[in-house]
Design brief:
about 20% strand; alpha/beta; GH; globular; 8-stranded parallel beta barrel; xylan degradation; 7-stranded antiparallel beta sheet; carbohydrate metabolism; glycosidase; signal
Amino acid sequence: MLYNKIFFGAFCMLFMTLCSTPTNNAQSNENEKENTTASNQNNSGTNNASTNNIVYNTTGKYNSIWGVWGGGELTSDQMTKYSFLKGWYIVYQWRKLEPQKDNFDWNYFDEQMKFAADHNLAIGFMVWVGPHSPEWLYSNGVPKVTSQTVKRSGEFPYYLDKTYKDRYYNMLAKISEHIKKMPPKIRDKVVMWMSAEGSTGDPQPYKGLLDDSKYNISEQQWFDFKKEVWTYMYKLCASENPSVHLLVNQANDGKYFNWLFNNLPGVWMKAGDISHTYQFNGELDFYDRMKKMETKTQQDISSSRLRGEITVQGTWFNQNESWNMYALLTSALHFGLDIFNAAPKYLQNPTDTIAFNFFNLYAGQKVASESPGAFCVLKDALDAADTKRFPESKYGPVLDPEKVTNYTREVEKKKMKAIKTGDAEDEDNDEDQGAVESTAKNNNLSEERINKILQEYSAYGAKRGDFSDLDATPESDNSAETYKQTRTTTKDGRPLNAKRQEKLAAKTKKGAGKDQSTNYQKKREANMVINDIGVNLIPDNYYRFLTQYSPNTTSRGYWRVGPGNQPYGRFARGFEAKTGRTEMFFALDKTFFKDNTSQKKVSIKIIYLDKGTGSWSLNYFDGSAKKEAYKVICTNSGNWQTKLVTIDAVFAQKLEHSCDISIKYLSGDNTIFNSIEILR
């Protein structure tokens, strides 16, 4: 008990040291609030432009290490563009760290650590082994294992060799010793150490088929090896003062999850799928597993955190990057992702700052009573396997009767095919078994069923695209495309000279350049960008602490709406007066406020599409009755607008359907909404 108290105190002190100084142009919520009196107010729908890109106040108790992290080669001048970064992730190679036996080169490692500390960023790191192991290992008796894939050949050490294990553990121990000797200014920023046991940070030892089968490592042998490594590193991390948190790749299929969860209390885990993509087949299974982690975090704020990195290749993502980045990050928040790692090339679009700031506000918030706010980002999902919403008697069978055998074969052969192509268990291609089955089902859906669902929902923007449709054109006038043509830095953030910028702009304009994406990456990106029918999907909204009552009976889902230079249009919900969908109700988590009987002063932020001339109102419970806070009359500007208002409300779920807030249709055109937030 005493140890826990000491640890908690140390961790809180660490958080205080990591708090970033707010930028001069950052506005606090108090400055952004539009005070509303008890009487009803009309609003033309034309708001102050500054409220459309709110910089949330994340100072004080709500500032933390959770949020968007960077990494790579950046200068201090370039860092001024990325003031939203919360941490810095360092990846180094063993062969560069220890180029000669027992001769360690800490220069790059220390430079990166100092750079992060100088910019007041939390620090995490990983040292790659496997194909990045030093050559001297092999001259010291470690067998060199070679492999072949369709794409490349590979060289790896034989991990079970005693000499290899001795040298590997020695390297880990030296890193731990080096961290202990760092100046406090740097040392106290180090919060995370990710294990790398095999091929980079991937869960498998090798990639491809081995040239010599005697070096094959069985699944059980590899798991036993990994458990030894994790246990050793877990103890090393605990020996640091303050403690460093071990981060482990659980594998997207979760095969290591239970052992890690039960044997290494509080261990942090990588959650790849939810940072790579959104609206992916089988995501419901992944969501259920991540919720187990959240229970641990609620008991200990330093425990059981999740990290992931973006790995999109741009084939489809850049068709409307601002839409997709916002959808990706709001989806990640719904799953509970705490750290979103983004290399410099993913930080180039200025519009994405809106999504990054939103993610930073809610990342890490697992306890309602401690969260600065609650949100509900509105969306619909067309799950073709949902026979309750889409009865087979009306929409046809889920699987095409002629493809049932193919579905079974596809599930059985998935892993074998991946091994032969070298993509098995790739960090960027490691599918949950539930996702494998869901994807196979998605690939063999009944065309009759797909067509009937599309016939009903295509009028609202839903699509069923395919990754092979490479001639598809951008869906809107997206500022990300324009920005890409005038990019002034390399993909890793280094400045481009003027001549290189001109060549790059000309190349982009002509559509030149070869797409380096794998088929898996193309399918994944196409699936999230142009395909709205899937299998085993999150059924409706992305939310945290604020839920909508019966979304599909009180509102209509929309896809791809509004201008492309604002981030809110990938998903939305709106009224549909002709079908009785005229009021959306929302319930705040009962534990958000400790006292639910007295009035609380909060800000309500609503983002809506100012299209048409319809009118609507915001309503709440004031302690005695349902009350209208204001009403809005749209002016048909065609842009997404933000309405932010301060009210005194009682959150006792006293409105209809045991809810606290409602958005009500009044007259005219149906208004479409992106999200609603309740901010303290």
